[in-house]
Design a protein that fits this description.
By secondary structure, the chain is of the alpha/beta class. It contains eight helices and twelve strands. The radius of gyration is 19 Å and the shape is elongated.
Length: 220
């Protein structure tokens, strides 16, 4: 799970990052909205945005995010309790508005509700298991299968989209974290990952992308 945090209060940001990393989240922290703006298309699963930060403010950043992505959850955290500001945040597309000061438990609860992958692990074909939170793959003998960073990111993307086709564009944004790549590179990554999974685990979908085959709960 990849989260972008925009927060310029060093003490608060360190507390948030420590708490979320302990829960297994991958966190990218920015204290300047202009810098964060460069990376908003890096395939994040959730955004946590303070309003009053240097560079580009959190609400402007949220507006930019929503211009290209209407679905990824966004949480505004702010000491501003003016009704007009709260209304503006929701109009610009925030999913939750958390007023400072707050307990970290409150933020974690909202993240669990909005952003958390519903499964902690997936039972794959041939009794392979993938631990989503830890990014670890186990074979049928419970022996860890070593994965490279991009292989982990690709499996995480499949985990977010169980029973759905993952497009080449989604893979580029999420796995290459916003960097441009080629279809050939994506296919090469899929080929490498296929070698580490049971046969027929990753199925091509007519040039549109790929789908992960796994054991449904009722078959596990």
């Amino acid at each position: 799970m990849k989260i972008l945090i925009l927060e310029d209060n060093t003490r608060l940001s360190n507390v948030i990052v420590d708490a979320l990393e302990q829960k297994g989240y991958h966190v990218d922290l920015y204290n300047d909205g202009k810098k964060a703006l460069e990376f908003i298309d890096n395939g994040y699963d959730c955004f946590i945005l303070d309003i009053n930060v240097p560079g580009v403010d959190g609400l402007t950043l949220l507006k930019e995010i929503r211009s290209m992505d209407e679905k990824t959850p966004a949480i505004i955290i702010s000491a501003n309790v003016e009704l007009s500001t709260i209304q503006d945040a929701y109009l610009k597309g925030c999913d939750e508005y958390l007023k400072k000061p707050f307990y970290i438990y409150e933020l974690e609860t909202k993240l669990d509700k909005l952003c958390k992958i519903t499964k902690d692990s997936i039972l794959l074909l041939d009794d392979y298991t993938y631990d989503i939170l830890k990014g670890v793959l186990f074979d049928s003998q419970n022996v860890e299968v070593r994965l490279a960073k991009k292989e982990i990111l690709l499996l995480n993307l499949f985990a977010k989209n169980l029973d759905k086709v993952v497009s080449f564009e989604q893979i580029e944004l999420y796995v290459w974290e916003g960097d441009l790549t080629t279809t050939e590179n994506i296919r090469a990554l899929v080929k490498r990952l296929r070698k580490k999974l049971p046969p027929e685990s990753i199925v091509s979908q007519g040039g549109m992308g790929y789908k992960l085959e796994y054991k449904k709960d009722r078959d596990a």
